[in-house]
Amino acid sequence: MIPVEQVRELIRSQGYKRVLFHLPAGLMPHWGILSELVPEPLFSADPCFGACDVPLHLMADLKADAILSFGHSKPPGFSYPDNIHFVEIQLPYTSTFIPPFRKVGLVYAIQYREASRAYARTLEKAGKTVVWGGKPGFMATHLGQVTGCDTAAASAILSRVDGFVVCADGVFHIQAVATLGKPTFNWLGETAKPPRYPVALLSTARTVGILVSTKTGQFHLNEAENLLRDLKKLGKQAFIVAGDTLTLETGNFQADCWVITACPRMAQDLRSSIPYDAAKLYIKGIYKEPYGRSSRTAKSAGRQSSGKG
Fold first, then answer.
1. Count of structural domains, the chain
2. Same domain (yes/no): 11, 72
């Protein structure tokens, strides 16, 4: 699962002595393998939600030579320092799911990039026409790759397909792709409707909290401050709440409505919350369902990293 020799060679070639390993939960049990690859291994206890979530703030405190972030690809929308490395992980999986439409748009989550090729052949043997996803946007890296906030690879082939299969498990990625308006499944055969958000709360809410994440790839303070001014002009009592890892405890501030300027997935986890872009469209009177998550571009994909944390 872990490309041990690739990691070993990276550490050797760069001369790193103290490395901070940033692992998703599923890889944490394998810490022993990684600890043998560098003289002074360190492991981050912070969550590893995505390539937007590298714990740069720990670099100086821990005096680390580098951070190796596992399970994600390097996003083109961010400028990370040279000592921040992304190690892609590939998982084996064989899917036999055949979707009920002929022209299949095929996209994948990064951990199934290699396995998706075999699945494409399965679809073609079943008589399906496979159309591979196109160029991604600010977060995904490879042709055909999607993330929860970047579905540009699917959007690029929208007019050429009857529906989509996302080589991924769970509903996070398929909910994002489903906002494009065509039938969407993961390769387990599960489907999902696009998420709907309680945007009408912005009309009736007296107090509105605006959440700002200080994570490098999710930091949108300018957008939050602009929204704060817009809401106050509408007579709302609006305020900004900021933090690195925002949790459900934020709800203790007891706002009538929340606007998320960080990862749009949070709007599904926190009650009475709306993604920033949806809130702006609603204020302008042009919001439409289903709301798509991929409206941000590389220019607005978060603050650029200085490497100083």
1. 3
2. yes
H or E, element range at 19:
strand 18-22
The range of the structural domain enclosing residue 249 comes to 201-291
Per the DSSP assignment, residues forming a β-bridge with 212 are: 242
pLDDT attached to residue 192: 87
DSSP secondary structure, 32-60, as one string: HHHHTSSSEEEE--S----TT---THHHH
Domain termination site, one of 128, 160, 186: 186
- pLDDT of 294 reads 43
Q: Which residue type is seen at 149?
A: C
Confidence of residue 197 (pLDDT cuts 50, 70, 90): confident
- Two tokens at 157? 């082939």
Which of helix, strand or coil describes residue 103?
strand
Cα–Cα distance for residue pair 31/41, rounded to 1 Å? 9
Percent of the chain with pLDDT over 70: 92
Q: Tokens representing 199?
A: 């945007």
Is there a domain that residue 98 lies in? no
Pair 207, 182 in one domain: no
**Residue 296: pLDDT band with limits 50, 70, 90:** very low
Give the span between the Cα atoms of 51 and 74, in whole angstroms. 7
Q: Nearest CA to 155 among 121, 189, 178, 175?
A: 178
**Is residue 302 pLDDT above 50, yes or no?**
no
The single-letter DSSP state of residue 238 is: E
Each residue of 1-27: pLDDT tens digit? 899 999 999 999 999 999 999 999 989
Condensed to tens digits (0 to 9), the pLDDT of residues 244-262 reads: 877 778 878 889 999 999 8
| Three-state secondary structure call for residue 279 | helix
Beta bridge partners of residue 22, listed in sequence order: 69
Q: Which residue has the tokens 């945007």?
A: 199
CA-to-CA distance for 38 and 18, rounded, in angstroms? 7
Confidence of residue 207 (pLDDT cuts 50, 70, 90): very high
Q: 255: domain CATH number?
A: 3.40.50.11860
| Crossing angle of the two packed helices 221-233 and 276-284, in degrees rounded to 10 | 30
